[in-house]
Input
Amino acid sequence: MTFSDHLPALVVVIFLISAFSAPLVFRWARNLSAPLLLTTLILAFAMAIYLLSMVNTRGTILYHMGGWPPPWGIELQVDRLRSYMLLVVTGVSLWIFFYGLKDLQHELKPEVIGWYYSLYALLVGSMVGITLTNDLFNLFVMMEICAISACAIISIKEDRECLEASFKYLILSAMGTGCFLLGVAMLYMATGYLNYGLLQEALSEAFLLYPRNIFTAGALFIVAFGTKAALFPMHVWLPDAHASAPSPSSAMLSGVVIKIYAFALFLMFFRVFPRELLEAVPLSEIILWLASLGVMFGSIYAMLQTDLKKMLAFSSIGQIGYIFMGIGFNHGLAAVGGFYHILVHAMTKAMLFMVAGVIIYSTGVRQIKDLAGIGRVLPLTMVAFTIGSASMIGIPGTGGLISKWYLALGALEIGRPLFVIVILASSLLNAIYYMPIVINAFMHQEDFKLKSKPVPRFMLISLVFGMTGVILSGIFSKPVILLLEQALIQFF
Output
């Protein structure tokens, strides 16, 4: 085998090496710790690009750790859809870390920054593992690493709010893990397999013998992944966790982490469960209605907030609903919309949390009412907020319109126009709570009296990169849409 044949494993392993090395390097050569993780993230992103090119030339790649095939060995799989997710996870994580290089020095005690880098590497590595794994046991292991490291990058700030929020997140995440394990046990009892491919082959026959067990497993997976992804009404941990965490952690959690569980649920239902099972029971319908309620109530809750970061956190509950709608429609066009929204929302919401971080860094302001006139002192920052808000609403020229367009097309294709109304109504609600902030920031410039301090270039460059990405995703969406259409054709 050549070096490139081992890339599916190496893209996970380099994060584990970086995670264990980061605290040691921080202790002995503090100035090298950030470049170490930055290099790891750049390498992982480059590997993700190369893996996509390999999939385009060779087709789906199956990698067996140690040469042991399933059911005994660990199998990793790389196809177009997983390559897409790999690019989103590694690319957005690299961008957020670049932003956090300066912001973390403001939000954390100097002595814990090395540990933060270690947790960050574990978090990204676990999400890469969730993306590539092809069996339920390793999915469980990676989910646990992801949940613990996500809780830790909240609590590392060490104030009362962060500790309470991370504890609540940990408890509810553990409940989700319990549901997942029960579901896995039921599938293993019925089939004797944990590998995705072997499970799918065996479940058709097992469904005739143990239909209730398999129905129950499907319901448990919805609760498990719904809790971890903050699908309404299992979202109660998210607002406090995302609002109280350091801003780079908020950007990471809201921009990337909650989406990886939506992707895992998609694989459960379309890669593991046989098609006839999904058509026999209303699992997709349950997801669709929960997602629709989340889209509406997430926006309504966001309208009621007075704290900027908490408003963004509640907005994420609504936005993750669009991604689950893409799963619940059980249709190719809607799935393209849902997966495109993963990319668009990852860029947009990460940028909006960066904006919040810049505002807090420069002025210390968190209350929405205090943002009136802030466009005078932070013009670039508020332009970024304006572009991000436009994408959240779905204004033409931004990626938010493209994903909602495909979701609406999917709803019309299956004869469900009611959900088009839901998408339009939620976009209107987004406008109601985002646009007043933009208008007040630029139209009442004399109202802002607080002092501000200069913003580091790293943070401003990150905002420029985010604005560019959001606009490009709205104007040049065709290559990504084409990739998603080719990737999803195997499922629909």
Summary: DSSP finds 19 helices and two strands in the chain. The mean pLDDT is 91.
